[in-house]
Design a protein that fits this description.
The chain is an alpha/beta fold. The protein has three domains: 78 residues, Arc Repressor Mutant, subunit A (Orthogonal Bundle), CATH 1.10.10.10; 96 residues, 3-Layer(aba) Sandwich (D-Maltodextrin-Binding Protein, domain 2), CATH 3.40.190.10; 104 residues, Periplasmic binding protein-like II (D-Maltodextrin-Binding Protein, domain 2), CATH 3.40.190.10. It contains eleven helices and eleven strands. Strand 1 and strand 2 form a beta hairpin. Helix 2 crosses helix 3 and helix 6 runs antiparallel to helix 11. It is elongated and about 70 Å long. The mean pLDDT is 90. This is HTH-type transcriptional regulator GltR. Belongs to the LysR transcriptional regulatory family. GO terms for molecular function: DNA-binding transcription factor activity; transcription cis-regulatory region binding.
Length: 296
């Protein structure tokens, strides 16, 4: 069997189609199709079937994903034998929660580039639930995220630190008149926040529900900077990690609202699949992450 065929199979699964996989690995689509046909012949199974216009995995094709991941991890280990571990090489795929990417990881990424210039670093910024799913499927090597309580048996997670979360508003907002601690009330303002699976949005919305507090509406944005700009313009309030609004609080662009949820905290972690081979690049990156958070 040709290892390249398994790499092509994995790429199709990750990219979602034969044509996207061909673009990613630099093959023609006919070459990708031929490699999969050869792999199917060697294994005597059908990996994909055509449903409408789409090629989808068969049950046996889905079963092969785990074995392919294990095989390619073993190949990586074999390829590393005899290589100089002092200079990491290869590829490293990382998924990072947006707020950590924007405010906490620049120093780590800069140091990693200096220490591992030969590593091809791929980074995506996603919500924590998607990152967990990608780690389980082996689509990324390391995830830097918040603990959302969905502990996966297949993942190893290391706690880094806790961050307080703060309720903020514009200096123009009459926050003295807005009581976010008394239950059973309607408050005339909007919640400006990230998408529904954002961990700190979930914490605040659970707090509102448990106290039967209702706001006018929700303004859902994907950019933390856009959220802060809307709040400072008095379009609503928000509930964010303190470290993302520290500068605005110091400059009086935002004000803190004290409520019974003001002691809430979120925990930053890094995770990786238990079956993942810890390459020199992975080891270095995780070391830099730990040192960065320990020094704060």
């Amino acid at each position: 069997m040709d290892i390249r065929h398994f790499k092509t199979f994995k790429c199709i699964v990750e990219e979602g189609s034969f044509s996207n996989a061909a673009l990613k690995i630099g093959y023609t689509q006919s070459t990708v199709t031929s490699q999969i046909q050869q792999l199917e012949q060697e294994l005597s199974i059908k990996l994909f079937e055509k449903i409408g216009r789409n090629m989808v995995l068969t049950p046996l094709g889905k079963e092969l994903i785990t074995h392919t991941d294990e095989l390619l991890e073993t190949v990586k280990k074999i390829e590393s034998i005899g290589k100089n571990d002092d200079m990491p090489k290869g590829e490293l795929k990382i998924a990072i929660a947006d707020s950590l990417m924007s405010y906490k990881l620049q120093n780590v990424l800069s140091l990693f580039r200096q220490k591992a210039p030969d590593v091809s670093l791929s980074i995506v910024s996603l919500n924590c639930y998607v990152i967990n799913d990608m780690l389980v499927k082996g689509e990324v090597d390391i995830g830097l995220l918040y603990d959302v309580g969905t502990h996966k048996e297949s993942l190893t997670s290391v706690q880094l630190t806790e961050f307080p979360v703060v309720l903020v508003c514009s200096p123009l907002f009459e926050h003295e008149k807005a009581d976010f601690s008394t239950p059973d009330q309607v408050i005339n303002t909007s919640l400006v926040i990230n998408e529904p699976n954002c961990i700190y949005r979930r914490i605040f919305e659970n707090y509102l529900r448990s106290n039967n507090i209702t706001l006018n509406n929700t303004i859902e944005l994907w950019s933390i900077e856009a959220i802060k700009n809307c709040v400072s313009s008095n379009l609503g309030i928000s509930f964010l990690p303190r470290f993302v609004v520290e500068d605005e609080l110091k400059k009086n662009k935002l004000k803190e609202i004290h409520a019974n949820c003001s002691d809430s905290k979120i925990t930053a972690i890094y995770s990786y699949h238990k079956n993942k081979w810890i390459s020199p690049a992975m080891s270095l990156f995780m070391q830099l992450v730990r040192e960065n958070f320990e020094s704060k």
